Amino acid sequence: MVTRAPKNKAAIMAAEIFKASQKSNRMCLILLSWQESAQRPLVVAANRDEFFQRPTEAAHFWPDQPDVLAGRDGEYGGSWLGLSRSGRFAAITNLREASGGERSRGELVRDFLSSSTSCDYFFESVEANKAAYRPFNMIAFDGQQLAISHSLQSGWQALPPGLHCVGNIPFGEHNAKINKALSDFEGRMSKDSAAALLALMQDDTESESSPEPLQRALSCRFVRSDVYGTRSSSALMLDDKHRWDFWEQNFDDKQRASALQYFQLQGSVKR
User: Fold this and answer.
1) Which of 34, 56, 181, 188 is deepest in the core (most CB within 10 A)?
2) 209 near 216, Cβ under 8 Å?
3) Which residue spans within the chain are E strands per DSSP?
4) 265 vs 38, 84, 239, 246, CA distance in Å?
5) What is the β-pairing status of strands 56-62 and 228-238?
6) d(Cα 142, Cα 219) in Å, to the nearest integer?
7) How far apart are CA 261 and CA 265, in angstroms?
């Protein structure tokens, strides 16, 4: 854990976090169980890590796009994870050590959730403009297919059944943080509960040894530091009747937990 610094050191701390993040196992994490259970064909556990000063809205139905249920970035208007009333799902992480454009990657989550196209059609439409967005890994579910695309490779792929982890390196690559998360996720799946998934995501055990306290903090699944850390943990479950259960736990700038939010959606898309 990183001790809290005085507020006048916030800018220095932010620069240190950015520097450390370029070589760490760090930051946002999405765990997925896909077609491992007939009763729960898709289970998701995710953490969003961000600077505390960045304006953020917790998950809600957006007034300007009422079919979208998602948290919202107050800076650019996009999202990092959400559902649609029809049962679509999307989530995104950033890619470290990668260059890209200036468009917010959160626009992709927003655009997919507000559309009715297949994953294949959506990712094909994005392909020509990938370089315009800030680097990303993006997961999308259209009711039939669970697919992923990332900035550093052309094309996209449908995910096979199994357990998957999406972090801040290109999908398919592994590091200590991802390996530990997958191992712990597998051990929790038999419990089939939101409480177990949220506890999994709020584990602040270090996944790497380092002489640098900040490096160790960023290697944790639940990140704690002075100006940056885990802002929310989410658990989502899709059942065999196309119903989504969605829990979200948010944290303030002292990382005190807010009241747990719960939503239930009856999707209309068919797998």
Assistant:
1) 181
2) yes
3) 29-34, 42-51, 56-62, 65-73, 81-84, 89-94, 136-141, 146-150, 157-158, 162-166, 228-238, 243-250, 261-266
4) 19, 8, 11, 8
5) unpaired
6) 32
7) 13
Segments making up each domain of the chain, as ranges:
7-266
CA distance 266 to 84: 10
Q: Which CATH number fits domain 7-266: 1.20.1050.10, 3.60.60.10, 3.40.50.9100, 3.40.630.30?
A: 3.60.60.10
CA-nearest of 92, 73, 93, 91 to 82 is 91
Report the distance separating Cα 192 and Cα 36, nearest Å.
12
d(CA 98, CA 82): 25
Predicted TM-score (pTM) of this structure = 0.90
Q: Which amino acid is at 182?
A: L
Q: What is the pLDDT of residues 180-237, one digit of tens each?
A: 999 999 988 777 799 999 999 999 998 877 777 777 888 899 999 889 999 999 999 9
